[in-house]
Design a protein that fits this description.
elongated, alpha+beta, Rossmann fold, BirA Bifunctional Protein, domain 2, 16 helices, 2 domains, homodimer, 39% helix
Chain lengths: 483, 483
């Protein structure tokens, strides 16, 4: 029978001490233990609260898509897509982000407008840098507004949401850099970059937040074959950043202001900053001409939120966290059309919150604070002071569970009271019901407050009400959606 | 630039009208639209509330594991495991359930006791029957108690949790069938089944809930080579079900009661029912000797919850839902040891809630009720009665968002008021702020209650407080975790 089978299996696995398999999670992945989960839940709750405050719905899509759904969407990065083995049937790949599945969903269901958020894991066979919060399996947390709407109204709301979320997480100061693809295109055009080099020059510019202009220039000239004077001209512009006054100046700039595409972009940017002002976040927004963002599919406004003072903060392990950028996104008006047989587009703008980086920061903070993160919400522990009281404890547990009070008891029949109380201190349970023979005889229980070690006797009939009062008084987490 | 590229791509995809790819999700998978997500959230909230009421923590594991982690755990069903393509590096498979990753997690982290829940998707290359709620990608929703504890205390709590969850979902009457692997083993032994046939006979018995005894007997005799009189003897027992009185009778049964293993199982079952009685759920528990459950790794108590009157209820599509069993689980004391180099075990008992079936039932119910499921929690819509008021609307939105009031406004600058109000009725937004030139001049807003169409004027200064009062009065969902 099965015990035999298990023993056999164990032998196969090397009962001789030489384990034949390694006990680990796949490269670039990790388990979330209860502490990490508590932080994760906290972060998600704040983010979801913000999404819901803005009236968003949520959807979910499968973890894998038809391989062809992902084909041709990620350029060079396609090599990082995880494919499933061909076991007969369809060829499948794990999703690489949530944007392409969203576009597929819109096209497939012929949805013309929606405001949705989607929080789920995505997969990239990248070189993991786990100390810096970069994994092969990681969460994305996307909010997008799809629909044919008026200029910059949805775009400004996305930036407002980023600001709300970063504020609510209390991560210190941050700046949301904004730019516009039309401005970049116009800039390259009027500096004399040939159109076929726009993309590669764009990706060089994108490195300006990590490296010096001299290096970027070298890349443009030596690797990408731009004449030095063209690179220099680009350099003058992309090192500019500022607010509405910079836009006004550039609109009057004889080169950039004269380029139709750039002027269009600048006018839109002006409107965006006006709306950001009305939303009370202009002081957190910086028009930054060096912001380029890698993804091909952006067509309008692009943005990226950066935490100040976090760019090179050391972690507990002594390695740099590198958590500068914590959110990013932009407008992509042509992606849905790639899935529509007639090429019909649905304009979209969205933002992706870099939750893995936020987890890293908050985990480091929790560790530094050394305060324990509670991993359960238990309000009451039912303890017994003498032996053979498991049945009495069960009756009390039943009464408390039925009253929607979060309750635990020891899973051993007889355990030393001291150990029971210690468990409460370790796990942060604030209240204990203690029973002994005397209490049972008198039809009472003792309510013990763990923090103060105070005990008082209440009648069994009043127990539930007394505990409820106590729980309210202590302000215990409590009150999650109940039955 | 990218527009050109996208156009090219579109052409590849067949701009000539003959789409070259099919717009679909992979076989056996589905998207969750906002309506489905709203129901899913509801179900999860109730289930998680119950898990937390019992003091559970939560963990998460990667969606894929090393292939060898899953090897040898699922018997014949291993052929249903999804493998990832070998793209260099480790060989990986998608998780098949949450129990094996849990056991791997315990062994890897040397955890000796934990009470955790885990809600996540699992993957099986099974023949999908989507109308009956069977998918290739589906949620599992597991609660397990690991640790060396006293007999039946954690086991009874698992059953209590099942009862709580099914009660809270208001799914009508249900029964939790319970049995014990030791009782089954003892029964087979004393009826004269050779030990090597225990497993196969067990799986025949397991079919008794779907088919008649005559068919099961035929399988035992014709296919599995059991002498007819042995099958008949098994038949007498496995058609028995009842409560504590049946256990007493069987303990005195000259055959079964005399078998050491069976007697042990019966004594444990007696204790389990005693604890169920103390937990107030004995009337929902039935000791059912035909319950066998497929999985090899069970070693003690097993159970399965069945909704009464749902076994063959037709769905909207006219096909049977077949949603009888909605939860199941049992004790598996030897699984963790399979991952430990020294074979050290951690006893476990757990339950898996069949949430996909619950979703099916609740979706069908929502459809039948025809009442709209709200997919957002928006409390206030900011509308304008005349043109060119987008900036004024934005100021109001800012004030409401900053006050943590869930607020939307039109994304078009100028929209007919009627359309704005219609949107609110369609999506269930209960309150509207209406502004026009008069209101702006007077520094007031109109608050409109959508249901009654009543409007009243309040000053801008009182707007937030008035809305808060109104939201409380209407009992709007509101109040999710806020900033």
């Amino acid at each position: 029978e099965e015990v035999t089978k298990l023993l056999q299996l164990k032998q196969q696995l090397g009962d001789d001490g030489s384990k034949k398999f390694i006990l680990k999670t796949p490269k670039g992945t990790r388990d979330f233990n209860p502490q990490k989960m508590a932080i994760r839940e906290q972060v998600f709750n704040l983010i979801i609260a913000s999404f819901k405050r803005h009236g968003a719905e949520t959807i979910d899509t499968p973890v894998f898509e038809l391989k062809e759904t992902l084909t041709g969407k990620y350029g060079e990065d396609s090599k990082l897509i995880y494919d499933l083995a061909d076991q007969g049937g369809e060829l499948l790949s794990l999703r690489y982000d949530l944007t392409v599945p969203f576009a597929r969903y819109l096209a497939m269901n012929k949805i013309k407008n929606i405001k949705r958020y989607h929080i789920a894991k995505v997969y990239r066979r990248d070189n993991p840098a786990m100390t810096r919060g970069r994994y092969r399996e990681f969460y994305q947390c996307d909010f997008d507004i799809a629909g044919q709407y008026d200029l910059m109204i949805p775009d400004a709301e996305c930036i407002k949401i980023v600001a709300e979320i970063l504020d609510s997480l209390e991560l210190g100061e941050f700046v949301v850099k904004v730019n516009h693809r039309k401005i970049l295109d116009g800039l390259f055009a009027c500096c004399g970059v040939p159109e076929e080099k726009f993309k590669t020059i764009c990706s060089a510019v994108d490195k300006l937040d990590k490296t010096f202009w001299a290096d970027v220039k070298a890349e443009m000239v030596d690797e990408k074959g731009l004449p030095p004077e063209v690179a220099d001209m680009i350099g003058v512009y992309v090192q500019m950043s500022g607010g509405p006054e910079l836009i006004e100046a550039l609109l009057k700039d004889e080169k950039l202001g004269a380029n139709k595409r750039a002027a269009e972009g600048l006018e839109e940017m002006k409107l965006l900053l006006r709306y950001c002002d009305l939303y009370g976040i202009l002081d957190k927004v910086s028009f930054d001409m060096s912001l380029a963002r890698g993804l091909d599919y952006y067509t309008g406004v692009i943005y990226e939120a950066v935490l100040k003072g976090h760019t090179n903060e050391p972690t507990s392990g002594g390695e740099p966290t590198g958590v500068g950028s914590v959110a990013g996104g932009g407008r992509y008006d042509n992606l849905v059309g790639m899935f529509d047989s007639k090429g019909r587009n649905v304009p979209c703008v969205g933002v992706s919150i870099g939750v893995e980086r936020l987890f890293s920061i908050l985990e480091a903070r929790a560790q530094a604070a050394k305060g324990k993160t509670r991993t359960t919400e238990t309000e009451v522990f039912v303890a017994s002071a003498q032996k053979n009281m498991v049945e009495e404890r069960m009756k009390i547990c039943k009464a408390l569970w039925d009253a929607n009070i979060k309750t635990e008891q020891p899973y051993k029949k007889n355990q030393k009271l001291l150990n029971q109380l210690q468990y409460c201190e370790e796990t942060g349970i604030p209240l204990v019901i203690v029973i002994g023979e005397t209490e049972i005889q008198k039809n009472v229980v003792k309510i013990r407050t763990v923090a103060t070690r105070e005990e008082r006797e209440v009648s069994r009939d009043d127990m539930v009400e007394e505990l409820r009062t106590e729980i309210r008084r202590l302000g215990v987490s409590g009150g999650a959606a109940g039955s």
